[in-house]
Amino acid sequence: MILDPEVAERYGDALFAVAKRRNELDAIWQDAEELMALVPRGSQIRTFLEGPQFNTADQERVVEKVFKGQLHELLTNLLHLLIHRRRIYYLEAILETFQRLVEESRGIYPAEVVSAVELNEAQKRDVEACMERYTQTDLRIHWRVEENLIGGLVVKFKDLLIDDSVSTRFAKLKHDMMAVRV
Questions:
Q1: Burial track 118-151 (b if 16+ CB lie within 10 A, e otherwise)
Q2: pTM beyond cutoff 0.85
Q3: What b/e sequence results for 13-35 when a residue is b if at least 16 CB atoms lie within 10 Å of its CB, and e otherwise?
Q4: Using the 8-state DSSP alphabet, how is residue 55 labeled?
Q5: Do 44 and 83 reside in the same domain of the chain?
Q6: Does residue 37 share a domain with residue 24?
Q7: CA 117 – CA 167 distance, rounded (Å)
Q8: Which pLDDT value is given to residue 40?
Q9: Which residue segment(s) compose the domain that 62 sits in?
Q10: Count of CA atoms in the C-beta half-sphere (13 A) of 147
């Protein structure tokens, strides 16, 4: 299903604003992580909650029975609202938006590092320390492996892209060599 990112942003912004106003960011953060662990993609409960063929009243009863007392009331209210408006499939994107906003409010920003091989913990610490010095921010880094890079790293942070991969160097060398007239 194709999701409108603005919808997830609006709901995530609203959840963040209410949680911040109530000074309950940490509690909701923890429960949001717990909620995502309880309803992973493909799980029976998630399929039931997202299924348009199921009655919304039944879905809301399940939410009440399963999550009431287990999750913060703001999250159970959010679940009810999303079910009522038939937007429950936005839940994951909404909670990701909420978590990003919480991290940004604490000065932590997402970044991505792509390498050709899995980096060990010491290498990850070195790359992270170097990136944090360069960006002058605390980072939450998502590490990914793409073997087609051959070697080197690709770093993404906000609008910054640093591509120091061997495959890019080869492509540049090829381009430069093709430009030379003999």
A1: ebeeeeeeebbeebeeeeeeebebeeeeeeebee
A2: no
A3: ebbbeebeeeeebeebbebbeeb
A4: -
A5: yes
A6: yes
A7: 13
A8: 87
A9: 5-104
A10: 0
73-84 vs 91-105: helix axis angle to the nearest 10?
140
pLDDT score for 130: 95
CA distance 86 to 152: 45
User: Within this chain, do residues 119 and 173 fall inside the same structural domain, yes or no?
Assistant: yes
**How many distinct structural domains can be found in the chain?**
2
CB 139 within 8 A of CB 125: no
pLDDT in tens, the chain (182 residues): 788 999 999 999 999 999 999 999 999 999 999 999 988 888 898 999 998 899 999 999 999 999 988 999 999 999 999 999 999 999 999 999 999 999 999 999 999 999 999 999 999 999 999 999 999 999 999 999 999 999 999 999 999 999 999 999 999 999 999 988 87
Bridge partners, 113 (sequence order): 143, 155
Q: Rounded to whole angstroms, how far apart are CA atoms 76 and 72? A: 7
Say yes or no: 52 and 113 in one domain: no
* Token pair in block for residue 60: 């809301």
Distance between CA 158 and CA 143 in Å, rounded?
Answer: 15
